[in-house]
Write a structure and sequence with these properties.
single chain; about 675 residues; alpha+beta; Beta-Lactamase; Heat Shock Protein 90; five-stranded antiparallel β-sheet; 17 helices; 21 strands; about 20% strand
């Protein structure tokens, strides 16, 4: 069948094997290529960006080393100060010249690059400060480092927060250095502060002992971290060697006081250090709120960085700030994109080569299959065809081609045999058709010719039995009645064979018109079977309205009712009634029912009821004569009217035949008067 014929028959043509192979290979190659690209992209990202992120995390350890080195330097300076003679003289109040001692200690502070160097007595009262304006006699601020030293009478060190008023007492310019205005920062959490006045300080405290190992005071010193760019630049130089990318520092470092940048080498849009900007909300939540490191990409002021954040804790363990290290993500993304671009180019080249190979391979497979397809189409059209075996490159296709050639030869031989057999069959069929036509014509002719003599014979026998030609003896009456029954049965057979002949020859025409069903169909049929009902001891009851009008052929519908009533009386139980009913269905159709009580119809006999020459295989049927045509003729006539006939039966109870005929108007509508 051609593709056009398939479309006409409603079936979509199947996809060609060549296209299927190409599509399959294409999907495999392209799918594999896409998967390779995806895996390559992920692998490249992991190798480049992931490795850069791990490098930042490791570099943060270097930043901590620089930070802790600064802390150790401060501790060493404070330790040294606590051990010199001048400190002992001041704290033991044995100094000869306090001003000269202060000058020497201030020089020591400056040499050690300390912002604060102060001596306090054992009670925490300041004895001497080495930074202008050299305030004294006030109580020292007990931050966690001081508290630890006083509690243990040894030493303390760490990062602490120093209030603004304490910074003013400690010396000139410290409070100003700590003062920072809070700047609006993208992606940062809202802040209740507009300015920050407190400072963050690296601080060390050492106890001072006399010769009796008695604490005579303490020395503390520190470096303010606010705007301490030297420390941050030292971290960047140590970790990143001041490497730049696209005119900007590749790596940056920051010390946060809380979430506020107090010392950084991150630049803002104006190119200035981004002092006063704040850390993003996600980092703040992880580091300040939960005390966990944050190692991931993050938005830093105005660009994305690969970052590492660690919490800065006070000596008492409280998180008071963050140490940050980060590198510009852009450099590694561009490096990743270059690697990915190279990988994509290689993948595309490989995919193209694979597609070309797929095309060639599909052609190798498709060409012998195409030859087989063409040959098969020729064979299907009745032509002889053979496939060239030399063109098959594959063992399986060679075997298939060889088998096809054998099959094609066998088909050609069988085609010739079938043509001969078909010619003989056509001739036999023509003979059978002619014989059947002759048979039906003869059946119609014989039945028609017998109808009139049989009718005359019935009339004559009936006249003799009724005494029109003289009185008869009782025995003669019984004989005449038996003859009359046989003649009536013969007449019934003739009528049915005549109807069968008309059906078989297509001459049974239905001429429907509006008729009164009771007057023109049902009442004559009931009169016709009255004697049969009396003889069988049954009563015929009718529930059909007198004024019911239907569309139909009255002669044909009477044959239907004659057959149904005759069957109902034939198989009904003596002493019961046969009931004829009527109902209007939802679609307006008429449903006529004929119900009798009796043994019913076995379920296994139902499929045979309306077949030609079919009779019930029950005990009653053996004693009753019939042609086996009544229900067949009934169905044919009902279907000619556009209706249908069905049967409902309950064994040993009843049987109901229902005839449904199309009806005009709504169900239950008043019936107009029937024409006479």
């Amino acid at each position: 069948m051609e593709a056009g014929e398939e479309r006409e028959n409603g079936r979509a043509p199947r996809m060609g094997i060549r296209r299927t192979l190409l599509a399959a290979f294409g999907l495999i190659v392209l799918g594999g290529g896409a998967l390779s690209l995806l895996l390559g992209y992920q692998t490249t990202s992991e190798a480049v960006v992931g490795e850069a992120q791990r490098r930042v995390e490791m570099d943060l350890r270097g930043a901590w080393a620089t930070y802790n080195h600064e802390m150790d330097r401060i501790r060493s300076a404070v330790k040294f100060t606590s051990m010199i003679q001048k400190s002992h003289e001041v704290l033991s109040e044995t100094t000869f010249d306090l001003e000269l001692t202060r000058i020497r200690l201030e020089l020591l502070r400056k040499q050690n690059r300390l912002d604060v160097l102060t001596l306090v007595d054992p009670n925490g009262r300041v004895v001497l400060r080495t930074r202008y304006p050299y305030e004294s006699r006030d109580m020292a601020y007990m931050d966690p480092a001081m508290q630890h030293a006083f509690d243990t009478k040894t030493s303390g060190a760490g990062t602490v927060i120093v209030p603004a008023d304490v910074l003013r007492r400690e010396g000139q310019h410290l409070a100003e250095a700590a003062f920072i205005e809070v700047q609006p920062t993208p992606m940062a959490a809202p802040s209740p502060k507009d300015v920050e006045t407190d400072g963050m300080m690296l601080k060390a405290v050492e106890a001072v002992f006399d010769d009796s190992n008695r604490v005579i005071g303490y020395v503390y010193g520190g470096v303010l971290l606010n705007r301490n760019y030297a420390l941050l630049d030292a971290i960047r130089e140590t970790v990143f060697k001041n490497e730049e990318y696209d005119g900007r520092p590749l790596g940056t470092a920051t010390i946060f006081q809380g979430d506020l940048r107090i010392a950084t080498n991150v630049r803002n849009e104006a190119g200035n250090r981004a002092i006063g900007t704040r850390v993003s909300r996600v980092v703040r939540d992880a580091v300040l709120e939960n005390g966990r490191p944050f190692n991931d990409r993050a938005f830093v002021v105005n660009d994305w960085y690969l970052t590492a954040y660690d919490p800065i804790r006070a000596p008492d363990g409280q998180v008071i700030g963050i140490l940050y290290l980060g590198v510009l993500e852009k450099k590694f993304l561009e490096y990743r994109d270059r690697l990915t671009g190279g990988f994509v180019l290689l993948a595309l080249i490989g995919t193209g080569l694979a597609l070309v190979f797929s095309l060639v391979f599909a052609g190798w497979i498709y060409r012998p299959i195409r030859r087989l397809t063409r040959a098969a189409r020729e064979v299907s059209h009745g032509q002889s065809a053979q496939v060239r075996l030399a063109g098959s490159r594959f063992n399986e296709l060679y075997s298939l081609s060889h088998a096809f050639n054998e099959m094609a030869g066998a088909v050609a031989r069988r085609t010739e045999e079938l043509r001969a057999a078909n010619g003989a069959l056509q001739r036999s069929n023509a003979d059978l058709t002619r014989l059947n036509q002759n048979y039906m014509e003869m059946l119609g002719f014989v039945s028609h010719e017998l109808k009139s003599p049989i009718a005359s014979a019935i009339f004559g026998v009936s006249s003799l039995r009724d005494g029109y030609f003289g009185a008869i003896q009782p025995g003669q009456a019984d004989t005449l009645e038996s003859i009359e029954r046989n003649l009536e049965h013969l007449n019934e057979m003739i009528q049915r064979y005549l109807t069968l002949s008309r059906i078989e020859q297509g001459d049974l025409a239905c001429r429907p018109r509006r008729i009164g069903f009771r007057k023109m169909v049902l009442d004559p049929s009931m009169d016709q079977v009255a004697r049969q009902a009396a003889a069988a001891g049954l009563t015929v009851c009718c529930d059909v309205p007198e004024d019911l009008v239907v569309e139909g052929d009255p002669d044909l519908l009477r044959i239907v009712m004659d057959n149904l009533l005759s069957n109902a009386l034939k198989y009904g139980r003596s002493g019961t009634e046969v009931r004829v009913g009527h109902a209007r269905l939802a679609d307006g159709a008429h449903a006529f029912s004929v119900r009798n009580e009796g043994r019913g119809i076995p379920a296994d006999q139902m499929p045979y009821l309306f077949r030609k020459f079919s009779r019930l295989d029950v005990a009653e049927a053996a004693h009753r004569r019939g042609t086996g045509l009544g229900l067949f003729i009934t169905r044919e006539i009902v279907e000619l009217h556009g209706g249908r006939v069905r049967v409902e039966s309950a064994e040993n109870e009843c049987t109901t035949f229902v005839v449904e005929l199309p009806g005009g108007g709504a169900a239950g509508a008043p019936t107009p008067p029937a024409p006479t």
